Amino acid sequence: MADKKAIAVLTSGGDAPGMNAAVRSVVRTAIAKGFTVYGIKEGYYGLVNDMFEELTLRSVSDIINRGGTVLRSARCLEFKEEWAMQKGIENCKKRNICGLVVIGGDGSFRGAKDLSERGLPAVGIPATIDNDISASEYSIGFDTAIDTVMEMADRIRDTSSSHLRCSVIEVMGRHAGWLALESGIAVGASAIIVSEVPFNFEEDIVKPFKKHIETGRHSFIVIVAEGVGGSAELAKKIEAATGVESRATILGHVQRGGSPTAKDRIIATKMGHYAVNLLEKGIGKRVVVMRDNAITDLDIFEALSMKKPFDVESYNIAKEVNI
Ligand code: ADP
Ligand code: F6P
User: Fold this and answer.
1) Residue 323: inside a domain, yes or no?
2) What percent of the chain has pLDDT over 90?
3) Does 1 have pLDDT greater than 60?
4) How far is CA 149 from CA 60, 212, 256, 315, in A?
5) What's the distance, CA 211 to chain centroid?
6) Is residue 48 one of the residues assigned to a domain?
7) What is the average pLDDT across 262-267?
8) Is the CB of 42 under 6 A from ligand 1?
């Protein structure tokens, strides 16, 4: 029926494991509520360039377990321009789309805010392996990425302990240290270096390593957040200062892939369902967030202005335990 209301969904920014589970939940929930559903390909680029595809219950079968995003993602800087936003809104209006779900990070939510302010209600779902969305305790993809880093670091640990080496492992996170912190705890890293906490080479590496060697430890794992970087140089510096042969590994984009963990699938499913419920009530300019371990929603502008303090307590626990 021409006047049947529709909802659209897109994925934007860096892909994250669990995005497909969120897309699946949006599609199934919306169809169950009587909406027509459109998937928009390649993020805001597809919104502007009319890359819409009607989705059915079966379009999202067998994707809950797949990493990446079947809608593909893209970065589309022209979307910050008025003509592009209006084009995107026009492409939605001609399909009787009354609401849009945007699965991505802070940048994507800025686009969702702009659309909502121009008459197209949009709701954001936090999805980035960086977990750097301040308004939400959790972003889809983070748990899977931690598991990936842990698995890679465990493999590196095998060779480190075989050769009595120090392995410096650089992990993603853009400017945030959440992935470094939590994977560092999970792998028992002798040092976790993040931009949120001051780092002193002598105090944080040389002195403790020499103490560890006295207690019989002869191999080390050091986790460095990409926001700090310099893992290759750090490895050389560690070798020169401690005499421990050192090697650097930059994990790179393996951290973005893989089948999402149960946690990511479950949270993505719940957040997708929640987002459609908001749009069904005509509510836009919101972002679905995890707060106090519960799923709720916040005004996008309020969410974007929030700050998430770094978890220094956990950082210090790692320092005390990983000796
Ligand atoms: P993330 O959503 O993971 O933060 P980006 O920062 O790359 O990823 O943003 C993804 C997309 O969101 C950009 O390519 C652009 O299309 C859109 N976007 C980012 N910032 C803005 C903004 N200030 N206004 C409108 N759209 C934006
Ligand atoms: O935001 C997710 C992320 O993987 C960051 O951790 C990383 O810095 C960035 O994306 C890499 O971006 P690209 O995939 O464009 O190289």
Assistant:
1) no
2) 97
3) no
4) 28, 24, 10, 17
5) 36
6) yes
7) 98
8) no
Identify the residue whose C-alpha is closest to ligand 1 atom 14. Answer: 75
For ligand 2, whether the C-beta of 183 sits within 6 Å is no
Same domain, 136 and 264: yes
Find the domain containing 34 and state its range.
6-141+260-305
Examine the domain organization and report whether 273 and 132 are in the same domain.
yes
Q: How far apart are CA 206 and CA 2, in angstroms?
A: 70
**191 shares a domain with 115:** no
User: Which of 130, 132, 204, 264 is flagged as catalytic?
Assistant: 130
Q: Are residues 226 and 181 in the same domain?
A: yes
State phi, psi for 298 to the nearest 5 degrees: -135, 155
Residue closest to 52 by CA, chosen among 103, 88, 5, 18: 88
Nearest to 107 by CA among 304, 283, 291: 304
The two three-digit tokens of residue 21, written as one number = 């589970």
Let me know if 147 is a catalytic residue: no
